[in-house]
Known about the structure:
alpha+beta
Amino acid sequence: MNIVRANTNNLETVAELFDLYRQFYEQPPDLDAARNFIEMRMSRNESVIFLALNEDGNGMGFVQLYPSFTSVGMRRLWILNDLFIHHEHRRKGVGESLLEKCRDFSIETEASGLILETRNSNRQARALYEKFGFDFDIYHAYYFFSTSE
């Protein structure tokens, strides 16, 4: 397995995985929209995407980080927004390898750390995050205010 920072050369692979990721969260398939969304993030340098490739160069999974900041800590913070492993490659250490790459990247960029959210019902992801060392935050409430229909 090889973990690379994705760029436009990997656009199709990332877009296909991203479309599957969205379907996992009960969104209809839309490869064109997925491709456009990922291409915009890449072309505007709005996110960092790490891609896990197998020995044949095929995509096994990806993780997408968005930059943010902690005002109190006065440092960069990375939002681990998307993590997806193709069903054929689950339980092979792909998720752990992607998280290790994110941890190393956070250290390299002198960030205060990584923050993420996942559905309470996503037990596999929660177990992975907790096994990796993420702490479940019991001190902060998470709120969402929708500005779209």
